[in-house]
Amino acid sequence: MPPISCARRGAVIVLLLAALISAACAFSAANHQNGQTVCRRLLAETRPLPGSLGALDVSLDEPEATANIENRREFLTSVASLTLALAPLHATAEDGVPAAAQEVQVAATGDVKKLFNEGRALEAQGNILAAQRLYSKVTKIAPRFVYGWSNLGNTLVAQGQLGEADESYSTAISLCEESLKETESFGVKRCDDLYLILLNRGSVRLNNDMPKEALSDLQKANTIRGRPDAVVLQNLARAQELNSFYTQSDKSYTTAISMTANEVNPFWLRSSMVKYQMGDVNGAMDLMKRVENRFPEALEVRAAYAVLLLGKGEEDAARKKFLEIPDRQRSKYADGRYLDKVVAWPPAMKEGLGFLTKAVGDTSFA
Hints:
- Helix 4 runs antiparallel to helix 5 (146-158) and helix 13 (299-311) runs antiparallel to helix 14 (315-322).
- The longest helix has 20 residues, at 162-181.
- The chain is mostly helical.
- The protein is 59% helix and 1% strand.
- It has helices spanning 3-21, 72-80, 110-124, 128-141, 146-158, 162-181, 194-206, 211-225, 230-242, 246-259, 267-277, 281-294, 299-311, 315-322, 327-330, 336-342, 347-359, and strands at residues 51-52, 54-55.
């Protein structure tokens, strides 16, 4: 099976990242991870992570079961700050030829292929640590093998080690770009997963407080993809939103939604909030109603729904909806830092929430 299949399995990681990170696919703290991201597809395809890490892409508050994790992003960021020494590119391969003098490897052979496939099997079984050890060994033996680095990045994302994952993806991207610059010759496979690896790194950066860098990666991924891709667009929309490009974000979210119209996803919440930021209260409410119907117990959905009701002039209904959130969990929405760093709501949403928190007596909003 060619390496790209690994990348495609990456989508599972993206979802994992998104769920873990932000949320690309799990209602919980903002991000992702949204964003997602967790990573859905990448937190993307060389295995998509968050976004998404995704997805990781978008995230909503999770039920009481995860209430003990007060700030998922803070946790992931602290874990990511632990540096992991990755095999340097100047390492030498088995034959003693300096790595920099070797051609980029897109297909594994010999012992490297055996180790790589064993790592993939362990990863598929959920044994991430064992898979990581094998991928790390692969990068030392074959430091010019693109997918050794990209798959190592996937396993690091699964453990919340976003900084190290970023380094691994960056190495894979550099090698992939180098492969694409090489003269094409018959029978020699070239790297054709650049957009996926960029998607994964972009999703990681979305969930690691690097919004500008994430936007750059995801714009490149979208361009290289060459056609609309729902996972790429979800993550791109989130990056545009975090960089305050709301018109562009709304367009990307709308296209992504049109491609997944039969299945309400957490990132629809972000799309609703972007529409509200742009003054499209009715459009925002139309989406919010569908999100609330699909995720009625998600705390962030209740809070956002309350703000939209307030925006429509239904103050009593807004207070009632907001008070459906238990006191302890509701207190988070009176914390300006939580709104800025965890769920990362747009300014108009935060303004409405500030009014509501004071109206119900939660006065610590700042």
